[in-house]
Structure formats: C-alpha cells, structure tokens
Model the fold of this input.
Amino acid sequence: MAGKFIARLSPCQGKTWPDVLAIAPLKVQRPFYPGGKAICHSVILHTAGGIVGGDVLTQNICLKPQAQALMTTASAGKVYGSDGRLAQQTVEIHLEADAGLQWLPQETIIFNGADFWQILRVNLAPTAYWLGWEIVRFGRTARAEIFDRGHWRSHTEIWQGERPLWIDRQWLPGSEEIFYSPHGLGGNPVVGSLTWLGKPVSATLIAKARQIWQEQPRQGQGGRHPNPGSRIALSLSRAVQRRSATVVCGGL
Done:
C-alpha cells in the first residue's frame, strides 16, 4: 500500500495555518491550538492500523518562515511481521527561517518477523529549530515477545544547508543473541532518542533531566551528547518500559 502525506504550514496574522494533502492510509485530524494560535498542533493517523510488508509510506512536511508546529500520531505505530516483502517509510522535513517543529510521534512497535526500513531527513535553515524524538519497541513486550526474526533499519539525517549536523544509521537484525547482548539491546526492548537543534540547552534543564533519571526506579541506560558549536543536545536511552525511554526525552 502506498500512502502519502504532504503538509505546508505558513503563518498569517500570528497564526500558523496548515495546507495538507493526505492519501490513504495516511490522514490528519483537524488542527488545534491548545497553547495559542501561533503553534499548530496536528495529529497524523494511519487508518489501516499498521504497516505490513510491501507498504511504502512517504511524508513531506515544510514549515514556511516563522511557522510553528507540533506534530504527533494518534496511537503507537505498528509494523507487522513481514510476508517476505520490505516495508518502508520516508519522512522529509524542511524548516525555513525562524520556523520551529516539535516532532513527537508515539512509539513504534516492531512486531517479531517485521522487515522495516525507516528514513528521516530534516533540512534546517540557520535560524530554524527542531525538537524530535524516536521511540521504538522491539516485540510485543506484554506478550513476552522479543525481536528474534526480521530486520529493522533506521537512517536519520539532519542538515543545515550543506552541513550535516547529525547522521545516524542503524541496523538491527532479529536475533535472540543480539536482543540480549550488552552490545545489542541488552535485554531492553525499548530504545529512544531525542534531538534538539537550533536553540541552546540550559544547564538547569540538563540538571533537571538527570534528576528525573536518578529519582525514578528503572532498568536501562541513558546518556547525553551536547555539541555547543552546532547547538545540538542528543539524548539516547535503552530501557525496559516505555516510560523509561520517554522521561529522559521529556526532561531535556
């Protein structure tokens, strides 16, 4: 199944307005403005309920100068076991001058046996900012399922003009050995990452994130990589429960 989502967001009289084209199974709910009319909130839907082998989904999002938006999904994404065909999702995001996007989809659940390749490319103007996270669960944890068959590939690129700010390519083949290996998932079914670019991260905010991590009982690992020159703060975590992945992201 081929689905497409194209969104152009532009400011007008202090309000960010979306212009959207969606082709099933991708849809978008009516925009809303809980924090004021400057920031447009959009919820993307996958009406088929999940991704299967052979699906090719594309999303193309552009924020015009000074547009502000938050985008999320209505529920956790699901990638079902493959029938031998590859499923692919490509997201292209362009942020023009002084635009800002908070890209906060709910977690993606990779079912055992899935064969999935996801691509995310973000292009930032020098004065734009980007806040984005990715949370992936390998296997249906509630059923004690692990990811021991299939393939998961993730290719993330964030650019500012011709300058690469962050290039991250990952490949996880389904394997019980890799699932439990300390050099793989370490027995932790959830991985999460958060990227913040374009605005400085204060020491107070970093201290708050560390305090949250230390105070909450959890299993897993977390870390932070700041790059003051390019205004990047990157948080990575491996955790047993979903909350363990998202708390650190929220803290930064």
Q: What stands out?
A: The chain has three helices and 17 strands. The chain has a mean pLDDT of 86. Residues 2-192 form one domain. The CA atoms of residues 117 and 127 lie 31 Å apart.
